[in-house]
Design brief:
The protein is mainly alpha-helical and about 200 residues long. About 85% of the residues lie in helices and about 0% in strands. Helix 1 packs antiparallel against helix 2, helix 2 (about 85-105) crosses helix 5 (about 155-185) and helix 4 packs antiparallel against helix 5.
Length: about 200
């Protein structure tokens, strides 16, 4: 009986120790799982914080852009009501657009650059300055749509700048160079005669 009791006690002790080891393994597994969950939560929180920071940065940039567009629209309205020649008004408007152009960051224009590129079959043949004016026009068009009773003259001016640049380079400059080559030594006489009044030429 004593031997049996000792054997039973030993078996129970072994079973208890096995259960204890299993419980310890289970506790370690649970601790490891909790550690992984904690790490995942911390990573998710860092990701959420980064997204929140990016969103705040984007919103801040949008506020700046909208503020600039408000100022530009107000300036254009004031210029239109001033008693100036059309040329003076266009010069002042171009100056204001140039300031806006230099203040808009490159990354803000990237999407509009791609959009502009998709609209022209001969995009690579356009001058670098034209490829700068066109995305800015698209950018302005996109941003100005948010306003009621929008004045699209900044968009039109940017497109006019692009057309004027292409016209100057592709037609006027080429024509002038061709004329110089064709007239050769008679060039000075040609320019002098073209400057005289019509009656004097007859």
């Amino acid at each position: 009986m004593d031997e049996r009791q000792a054997l039973t006690s030993e078996m129970m002790l072994k079973a208890l120790m096995n259960k204890s080891n299993e419980g310890f393994d289970m506790i370690q597994l649970m601790a490891s799982l909790l550690e992984d969950i904690d790490k995942g939560v911390k990573d998710a929180n860092r990701g959420i914080a980064a997204v929140k920071e990016d969103t705040e940065s984007i919103n801040s940039k949008m506020d700046i852009v909208l503020e600039k567009l408000d100022g530009l629209e107000s300036a254009f309205e004031e210029l239109k009501s001033e008693n100036r020649t059309i040329e003076d008004k266009l010069t002042l408007m171009n100056s204001k657009l140039f300031k806006l152009d230099s203040s808009v960051e490159g990354e803000e224009l990237e999407d509009f650059y791609v959009l502009s590129q998709s609209k022209y079959d001969n995009w690579d043949d356009l001058d670098a300055l034209t490829r700068k004016f066109t995305p800015l026009a698209e950018f302005l068009y996109s941003k100005l749509q948010k306003y009621d009773k929008t004045d699209y003259s900044p968009v039109i001016l940017e497109l006019c700048r692009a057309i004027e640049n292409e016209f100057l380079l592709k037609i006027f400059t080429k024509y002038t160079l061709d004329l110089i080559n064709r007239k050769g030594s008679l060039r000075s006489r040609f320019f002098i005669s073209s400057l005289r009044p019509m009656k004097a030429r007859r």
